[in-house]
Amino acid sequence: MPKIKIIFVLFILALLAAIFVPGFLKFQKLSGINQDLTERIKELKIENTQLNREVKKLKNDPFYIEKIAREKMKMSKKGELIYKVSGAEKTDE
After folding, report:
1. DSSP code of 77?
2. What's the rounded Cα separation, in Å, for the pair 67 and 81?
3. Mean pLDDT over all residues of the chain?
4. pLDDT tier at 87 (50, 70, 90 boundaries)?
5. How far is CA 69 from the centre of its chain?
6. What is the distance between the alpha carbons of residues 14 and 8, in angstroms, rounded to a whole number?
7. Which H or E run contains 19?
8. Residue 32 CA, distance from chain mean position
9. Distance between CA 82 and CA 77 in Å, rounded?
10. Buried residues in 20-46 as b, exposed as e (16+ CB within 10 A)
11. Axis-axis angle for helices 2-60, 62-71 (nearest 10)
C-alpha cells in the first residue's frame, strides 16, 4: 500500500509540473519582453519630447530656422558668398 501512495504522489507531482511549468516559463518570457518594451517606451517618450521641442523651435524661432537652413540645407542669405574649401587635411597634434 505505501508503494502505491508514493507512486500516486509522484504521478500527481509530475502532472502538476506538466501543467504549471510551461505556463511559468511563458510568464518569464513575457515578463522579459514586457520589460524590454517598457524601456523602449521610455526611450521613445524622450525622443518624442525632443522632437516636440524642435517642432516648437521651427515654428517660432527664426534664428533656429536660419541655423538649420544653413547647416543642413546649405542655404545662404541673398548676397552672401559661400566659400568651399576642398582638400583640407586634418592634422593630429
Report:
1. -
2. 16
3. 88
4. confident
5. 29
6. 10
7. helix 2-60
8. 15
9. 10
10. eeeeeeeeeeeeeeeeeeeeeeeeeee
11. 100
Query: Which grid coordinates are listed for 20?
Result: 504549471
What's the pTM?
A: 0.57
Give tens-digit pLDDT for 48-82: 999 999 999 999 999 999 888 888 887 887 888 77
DSSP three-state, residue 12: helix
CA 72-78-81 angle, to 5 degrees, is: 75
Q: Other CB atoms closer than 10 Å to residue 14's CB: what's the count? A: 10
Residues in the chain, how many? 93
